[in-house]
């Protein structure tokens, strides 16, 4: 790639599209000078421009990569490109965001996020204190008292102070300059050379709207800034933060050809027998944090080991640590098409939270023919009818293993799976808690045995 | 559809996997190296899974401060040459639409996984729905065709995410994987050791010879891609532009670029058509469905046939471009075509009615819950 006809500035020979006296053209010229001063190659420079008059800049730099984006989003598009380049690529890119005060207003979050992360890019914020291209309306950076087409008597809301905002983001580099400042090219060069997020706010007076509406010329700009409490010059320059990609690379180094561990290697495992003739649907309900979903997952895994098909759905309130926890499990000898649990064959309930949820869903009214309910003894007074079995699940086992116990009891009663399949499933899924879960299955099976010997418990009260 | 796991699989390689997890699996297999996300049920699991797995590879996973940022990060990364993906649900998709159009206009490949939940507005975070099908497709001003693929099982989540990457890259256009809560958050047995082979395509790359930023001869050609910070000058804009990438008003070349954006997708509509067929000779009714509901529809057909009915099933994996030929072929002998989908007014049926006006269309629709096989059978 050649660096263009005018190696002095990267600027081509196109006429500048801006109004006479507009600062945008000056900034472009200073940027060109800064790039030359830095000795950068055109191919490594990306100009990411925002919407507005500021976004007319692209064709002025015929040899640079130019990305004209959408209103306010330039910083985010640039950040994505920089992170891909620095983490996944060679890291040669210098990305310069050309944005207006309007773009900074609508896209403020992208600026603060890039500053917080310290993404290695440079933002040139062309602050002409209004939306130039759309007719001179006020923005969040319009100073108090400044007249715009939508605040003709003067703005009555204070302007956002980018310096304070960026201090709050721990930004490493911030400068505020007038477009006419002699040192602007140097400041821009420092910003581009800065390893991390750097923003230069350039104050301008829009000749189309700012000048006539406020009866002032460019000379008044410095006084206006000072009256508004804005200090000029390089206001923040700190080197105590590393750019985001360096931190990221250190935390997440690319592995050296190590293959990712995948679960399931396709090797044969013991297959268990099952006695399921038709699909079975089981609803397990209890309280959050009491391993209801683990119990359901063990049932599914046991079904898999028995070469059954299965689906599992979990439900819980938005507050994951309180209220109910519920799983639906469907097992079938054939592939499962419809995954709904419209007529459960068994409803297992280990706590009042679970019962409330099951009632709300109407599971008990929709029990399939021959359906069973296995519930903790504490719910006995609320449950009655054929097929209801209440047992001391929480007392004899523990709140944490009551759900798995209920699964084991159900299985013991209907014999759909081998008990060893449940134990093997625990082996597949459980880590440290394995022994406790295995014990729970054994205890539950003996509870089931006692219940069968003492039919009085059946049918509730 | 659900594969018969007993036929070929050893139980040790069968693992419970959700649709969301298998989207992530497909993305990684397709070569995705950049993900950015923002939390939202029922898509959050993709965000988490991609984060953990990409970081383990030293690739980029990025939490965004909003969905607009998430998609813009992906677009920037893709313009640099990385395969990129984000995932969201209806409320986040609403925020992404402007950036999505920008991706389309700049011919930037990117995959957006849209996991539907009940709307409008915040709707129901954990309630299923198929209400975003037209919001996904008609998100662009001018109605440019957005490829939309709709999985109904975890394995289809895997294959269709891979297809989405391949088409997005090959056509240089954004693609939507339209999942739904019931597909995304339901766990089923998946054989991770024997996932289907899906060919992986990369975007065509530009060379210096005859390079232009938007180079095509015939309108349906895909312009070769040049990455940012490479040796070929990139010129991108969301404004209407000529083949040099420069903003122009309605000159002939600029309008050709717009026509080209549609032509390159339209020309490959037939190759993109993916369906699941279970057709019966001399069927008198056909059910067409997609996503989670297609499974109930297939069950309905199974039940109906067992009761002596002659019924056909067509599950659509490609929703857009509309697989018109596959539908016409499946409907050849039937009197009625029933479209089952989980939204109030039969959104997709409305576009089918427009695309194939000579067929007799009926709808089965529910709001806030899955459609049952019996309800579909009744309508057939
Ligand atoms: C989402 C969106 N909203 C509104 C617009 C209309 N618009 C075009 S230019 C512009 C103003 C840009 O102002 P600023 O960023 O200050 O740039 P300036 O024109 O002053 O250089 C606006 C609001 C748009 N293009 N996109
Ligand atoms: Mg402005």
Q: What is the gist of this entry?
A:
Chain A is of the alpha/beta class and 461 residues long.
Shape of chain B: globular
Number of domains of chain B: 2
Rg result of chain A = 34 Å
CATH H-level superfamily title of the largest domain in chain A: Thiamin diphosphate (ThDP)-binding fold, Pyr/PP domains
Strand content of chain A: 15-25%
The CATH architecture term of the largest domain in chain A is 3-Layer(aba) Sandwich
How far do the termini of chain A sit from each other?
87 Å
Outline the secondary-structure elements.
The complex is a heterodimer of chains A (461) and B (380).
Chain A: H1 23-38, E1 45-49, E2 65-68, H2 74-88, E3 94-100, H3 101-106, H4 108-117, E4 122-127, H5 162-168, E5 173-178, H6 184-193, E6 198-203, H7 210-214, H8 220-227, E7 233-237, H9 244-251, E8 280-287, H10 292-305, E9 309-315, E10 324-332, E11 346-349, H11 352-361, E12 372-376, E13 384-391, H12 393-396, H13 402-414, H14 419-429, H15 434-453, E14 458-460
Parallel strand pairs in A: 1-2, 1-3, 3-4, 4-6, 5-6, 8-11, 11-12, 12-13
Antiparallel strand pairs in A: 5-7, 8-10, 9-10, 13-14
Helix pairs in contact in A: 1-6, 10-13, 10-14, 13-15, 14-15
Chain B: H1 5-8, E1 14-18, H2 19-29, E2 34-37, H3 44-56, E3 60-63, H4 67-79, E4 84-88, H5 90-105, E5 110-116, H6 133-137, E6 148-149, H7 154-171, E7 174-180, H8 181-184, E8 186-191, E9 235-237, H9 252-266, H10 269-272, E10 275-278, E11 285-290, H11 291-306, E12 311-316, E13 318-320, H12 324-330, E14 336-341, H13 347-355, E15 361-365, H14 373-379
Parallel strand pairs in B: 2-3, 2-4, 4-5, 5-7, 6-7, 11-12, 11-14, 14-15
Antiparallel strand pairs in B: 1-8, 6-13, 10-12
Helix pairs in contact in B: 2-3, 2-7, 4-5, 11-14
The complex binds thiamine diphosphate and magnesium ion.
